[in-house]
Every structure is written in structure tokens, then in C-alpha cells.
């Protein structure tokens, strides 16, 4: 069995620190770098090597894992040391747009490096634990070559060769996650306006969220076929409900932005004559931003 691959982790926010600890725990020689040096102190005490400069961080390991606020930070940090990129594998687990991932892969290739895009689908305390997984995309050969190193962070969920694919999947899952959290806060505020404590509301919210797979049945087939038969809760009926939710929000003196955005999708679907179809037809309003406007 080969020795664990040396790894450099650049960016030591909560996620970067969790990843560095996972590598240390699994016996990987781990170098760490952060523009604020003190963020490395605890990791160094646990056995990591501190790189004093970004160039030193690059030089220390064949695999460079980046956990930064955005991709521009990668260019800012690594730009002065591009001569050291040749032969390295950059695993960028930072959040940005799909096009940013595609540009970064081209930039890395121009400097002789291999680029793997990733998106970590758990919060920092769960990195490296059972159930953790990470979306990856980029050259399949590189992902396979470094699979054992990547698996330290969680299950490798490879999405394909195009560098932007992992970023698309990551952002789509965050889209779902963040809108659920926002709508839960909105609903808590709505019942709260009537004096209902959040602790009384949340068991009902959890029960409803647990029922969502039932309500999502058939949606994938409808979207794939672009056919939206009425299943007993058509768009016109749902639209009326969204009008009421938005009105109730306004009456309560709350910010109506979230329900109003959903209400407007329904209004547009009605405007183009799709009220008799299932509410999944909102997909068509999303992929055609001009539909129903005017």
C-alpha cells in the first residue's frame, strides 16, 4: 500500500480547517497556508506544516486543495507563483459560477497544471465523516489517480469531464437548500405575527419537509417530457394560494419579497394560458424568463 499523498490546503476558514484536519487524521503530510497566518496555528500544533508564502504552499505538495471565498482569490494567491504550477493538481472546492470553473481549468492548463472542480455537500463538522460527499468534475484520469486522496473528505461523486459540471451541481443543491431555509424562516415569521412561538411551529415545518418526496413524485418525468398534466392541484389553484400567502404577508407587515417572487412565476404561467397544467409548469417560466411578461 502506497504512502498517503502529501496535500496542501490553501484557505483556512471553517471548511478549509476541517479538510486539513481530515487529511491529518488520515496520515497525509499536510501543508497549510492562509493569508492570515494565525488561522494555521491550531493545525500546526496538530501536525500540519505551515507554508509562509503561497509559493511555498504550491511547492510543498503535488495536490493543492483550495477552499476560498471565490475563484478570484485563487488567482490573487497563486498568480505570482504560476511557474510552480506545472505538474500540480489543483482541486478547487471554492464556490463560484460554472463559467468561473471553466475559465480556471483553462488557466491551470495554460500553466501545466491539472484542474479538478469540486463542491463539498456537507458543513465543516461533517467533512470526512460518514454520509459526506463531494461533487467533482474534470479529467476522469486525474480524479481516479487521486481518488484515495479525494475520498478523505467524503464520497467522490464524479459528475463528468467538463470542469463546470461539479459547480452546476453544487449551486443547484445550494439553491434548493437555501430556498428551503429562507421559506422556513418566512413561514415562521408569518405564524409569529399571530403570536405563535417558533418552537410550536417547527415540528409542523419538519413534518411537511419530510413529506416533500411525495409531492415531488413525477416532477422529473414531467420536466423531462415538457408535459405537465393536471394531477389534482393545477397551476390556477396554486396561483390563488400564492396570492393569499403574499397578501397575508403584507397584512402582517412582513417582507413580501419571497412569496411575491413565487407568486409572479404563477402569474406568468396563467398569463400564457397554462393554468390548467400542473404546477411543475413553472419550470417553463424559469427556463424562458420572457414568458408571461409584458
UniProtKB/TrEMBL annotation:
This protein's UniProt keywords: Oxidoreductase
UniProt-listed SUPFAM superfamilies? 6-phosphogluconate dehydrogenase C-terminal domain-like, NAD(P)-binding Rossmann-fold domains
User: Where do the NADPH-dependent reductive aminase-like C-terminal domain residues begin and end?
Assistant: 163-286
GO molecular function annotations of the record? NADP binding; oxidoreductase activity
State if Oxidoreductase is listed as a keyword.
Answer: yes
Family according to the record: Belongs to the HIBADH-related family.
Name this polypeptide is given: 3-hydroxyisobutyrate dehydrogenase-like beta-hydroxyacid dehydrogenase
The organism of origin for this protein: Microlunatus parietis
Q: Taxonomically, what lineage is the organism?
A: Bacteria, Bacillati, Actinomycetota, Actinomycetes, Propionibacteriales
Amino acid at each position: 500500500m502506497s504512502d498517503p499523498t502529501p496535500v496542501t490546503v490553501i484557505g483556512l476558514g471553517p471548511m478549509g480547517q476541517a479538510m486539513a484536519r481530515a487529511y491529518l487524521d488520515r496520515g497525509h503530510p499536510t501543508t497549510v497556508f492562509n493569508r492570515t497566518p494565525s488561522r494555521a496555528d491550531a493545525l500546526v500544533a496538530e501536525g500540519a506544516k505551515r507554508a509562509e508564502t503561497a509559493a511555498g504552499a504550491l511547492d510543498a505538495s503535488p495536490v493543492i486543495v483550495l477552499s476560498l471565498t471565490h475563484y478570484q482569490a485563487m488567482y490573487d494567491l497563486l498568480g505570482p507563483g504560476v511557474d510552480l504550477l506545472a505538474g500540480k493538481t489543483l482541486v478547487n472546492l471554492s464556490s463560484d459560477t460554472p463559467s468561473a470553473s471553466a475559465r480556471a481549468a483553462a488557466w491551470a492548463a495554460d500553466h501545466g497544471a491539472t484542474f479538478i472542480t469540486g463542491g463539498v455537500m456537507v458543513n465543516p463538522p461533517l467533512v470526512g465523516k460518514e454520509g459526506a460527499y463531494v461533487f467533482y468534475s474534470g479529467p476522469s484520469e486525474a480524479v481516479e489517480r487521486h481518488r484515495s486522496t479525494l475520498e478523505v473528505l467524503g464520497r467522490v461523486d464524479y459528475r463528468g469531464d467538463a470542469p463546470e459540471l461539479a459547480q452546476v451541481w453544487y449551486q443547484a443543491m445550494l439553491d434548493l437548500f437555501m430556498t428551503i431555509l429562507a421559506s422556513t424562516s418566512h413561514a415562521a415569521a408569518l405564524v409569529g405575527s399571530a403570536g405563535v412561538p417558533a418552537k410550536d411551529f417547527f415540528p409542523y415545518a419538519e413534518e411537511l419537509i419530510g413529506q416533500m418526496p411525495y409531492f415531488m413524485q413525477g416532477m422529473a418525468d414531467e420536466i423531462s417530457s415538457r408535459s405537465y398534466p393536471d394531477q389534482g392541484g393545477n397551476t390556477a389553484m396554486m396561483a390563488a394560494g400564492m396570492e393569499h400567502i403574499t397578501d397575508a404577508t403584507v397584512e402582517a407587515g412582513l417582507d413580501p419579497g419571497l412569496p411575491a417572487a413565487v407568486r409572479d412565476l404563477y402569474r406568468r404561467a396563467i398569463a400564457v394560458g397554462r393554468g390548467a397544467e400542473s404546477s411543475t409548469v413553472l419550470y417553463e417560466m424559469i427556463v424562458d424568463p420572457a414568458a408571461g411578461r409584458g
